[in-house]
Design goal:
It is elongated and about 75 Å long. The protein has 154 residues and is α+β, with helices and mostly antiparallel strands. A hairpin with a 2-residue loop joins strand 5 and strand 6. The strands form 2 sheets. It has a 4-stranded antiparallel sheet with strand order 3-4-5-6. The protein has a two-stranded antiparallel sheet with strand order 1-2. Helix 1 runs antiparallel to helix 2, helix 2 packs parallel to helix 4 and helix 3 packs antiparallel against helix 4. The protein has one domain. The longest helix is centred in the first third of the chain and has 29 residues.
Amino acid sequence: MKIIITFLLVVLFTNITFAQFARVDANIKKLNNNQFTIIHGDQPMFEMNSSAAMKLIKIGKKATVKLIVALEDSTKVIMAHIVLCHIYFNVATFSGPKEFIANDRQVSKYFLGQEKGEGLILSETKINGVYKIYIEEENLKKIIAFWKNKTSQK
C-alpha cells in the first residue's frame, strides 16, 4: 500500500513540475521587447504591457534558468530582465535619460534595474520621429553575468 501511495505522489509531483516548466516556456515565448515602452515627459517612466511577464513574475524563481537564457535573445532581453528584477527585487527601477552624441546622433541612456545597484543600460535614438531602443553588447554581457552570478547559474 505504501508503494502505491509513494508511486502516486511521485507521478503527481512529476506532472505538476512538467506542467510548470511548460508554462514557463510558453510565457517566455510570448515575451517581446515591444511590450516595453519608454514614456517621455518631465519624469521619464516606462510601461510594461505583457500578461506573460506577469505570469512569469507569479511563477517566481522557478523561471530563473529559462529567463537567463532569454536574456541572450535580443528580442526578449529587456522583458526577461524586468521579470528577473521583479522576482528578485520586487521592482524594476528606471532612471534617465543621460544624453550623448554618437555618430552624429543624439543617444539617450536609461537605467533599468535594481535601485542603487546593478541594471541594464538601454540606449535610445530618435530617427524621423520614431524611437528605437537597443542594448550595446558590453551592457548585455554585463547584465547576463550579473544575473548568472546573482542566481548562481554559472
